[in-house]
Amino acid sequence: MALKPAVSGNDINGLGEAAFRRPTWVYWAPDPDDIAHGDMQRWFYSVRPDEPALIKARAERQVILDAPIAELADSPIEQSDDAWLAQLRRFEADGTCERVGVTGLDPDWLYAGYKRAFSNVVICAVQHDYEEISKAPEPDAGGEVIRQYGRAAGAAKQIAGWLRSQGWEAEPLTGPMAGKLTMIPPALSAGLGELGKHGSIIDPAMGASFRLSAVLTDAPIAHTEAREHGIDEFCRNCRICEDACPPEALSADKQQVRGVEKWYVDFDKCLPFFNQHHGCAICIAVCPWSRPGIGLRLADKLATRAARKEAEG
Ligand code: SF4
Ligand code: SF4
C-alpha cells in the first residue's frame, strides 16, 4: 500500500464519467514507468518469486512468445468471407483454442493514442482447467492463468501466421501486458458471451473462466454475431462473486464508466489483494457458469423461460 500512487485507478479507468472517451492503460504496462501504478506492478513480481508452478508456466509461455511468425506471402489469396471463417474454425477443431470469433474493428476499442490500422479483429478464447483455477488464490491457479495466457498467445500467433501465409497482413495481440486493444468489447461483439458482474465475460460453453487474445487483420473473414443468453439479467439476481470477493471490489449495480453503464470491478480495492496473492481468480472460480457442464444447461433454462414469457405476452 506504501507504493499506491496518489491517483485512483478508478479515475484512470473513468469511473463515474458520463462522456465517452477511449481507455488508457491502468496496469500491466510493458514498461511500468509508463503508468501511475508502475511501482505496484513491479512489486507484484516480488511475491512468490521462487514458486515452481509459476516459474515453469512462465518459462513455457516465454517459448511461445519468442517463437517466430510466418512471413507475409506476396499475393493475397481471394475467397469468400464464409470460406475464410470455415478455415479459421479449424483452430477450434484442432484444439489450438476453444473458440474464435470475428468482428469489425471499432476504433473506440483501441487505447488512447493508437490508430486503427486494420479493419477486422479475430478473437481467440482459451479455457482454464476448472480444477486448477478453483485453487485461487493459491499458486497453482496463478500457474494455470499464465499457462492459458501462453496458449492464447500461441493461438493468436498461429492464426496470424496462417493469415500471413495466405498473403494477408495480420498482427497478433496477447495479454496480460496491455497492448493497443481492449479485448472484452470485440469479444462481446464477436459473440463470445456477455459481461458478468465480476468484470469478466461469461460464455455458456466456457463459463467465466477463459482468457482472450486477438489478431488484427484486413483478411475479409465473415463476422460472427453478438449473442444474448440472459446472463446480464442473471447477474442482477446473483451475488455469489460479490460475496466471495475478499476486498469487496464488486458492486450490486452497474456503474457509469467512460459514458457506458456496465459491471465494473473497483480497481483500487481489487489490486492490493490481487498483488498480495500474486494474482486472484476467486470471482471467476466461484461463478456458477464456470462449473463444468453447468453453463449450457443454465443458458437452455434461461432461453426456455424467456420464450415462455414472450408467449405469455
Ligand atoms: S457469480 Fe453470479 S453475479 Fe457473479 S458473475 Fe457469476 S453469475 Fe454473475
Ligand atoms: S480478482 Fe479477486 S480481489 Fe479482484 S474482484 Fe475478483 S475476487 Fe475480488
How would you characterize this protein structure?
- By secondary structure, this protein is α+β, with helices and mostly antiparallel strands.
- The protein has one domain.
- The chain is 38% helix and 12% strand.
- The chain has helices spanning 9-13, 38-44, 52-66, 81-88, 90-93, 130-133, 139-165, 184-189, 231-236, 240-244, 267-276, 282-286, 295-312, and strands at 99-104, 120-127, 170-174, 194-195, 201-202, 210-217, 255-257, 260-262.
- The strands form three sheets. It has a four-stranded antiparallel sheet with strand order 1-2-6-3. Strands 4-5 form a two-stranded antiparallel sheet. It has a two-stranded antiparallel sheet with strand order 7-8.
- A hairpin with a 2-residue loop joins strand 7 (255-257) and strand 8 (260-262).
- Helix 3 packs parallel to helix 7.
- It starts with 8 loop residues before the first helix and ends with a helix.
- Bound molecules: iron/sulfur cluster (SF4) (2 copies).
- The site of one iron/sulfur cluster (SF4) has 13 residues, from helix 9 and helix 10.
- One iron/sulfur cluster (SF4) is lined by residues 198, 245, 247, 249-250, 265, 270, 273-274, 280, 282-283.
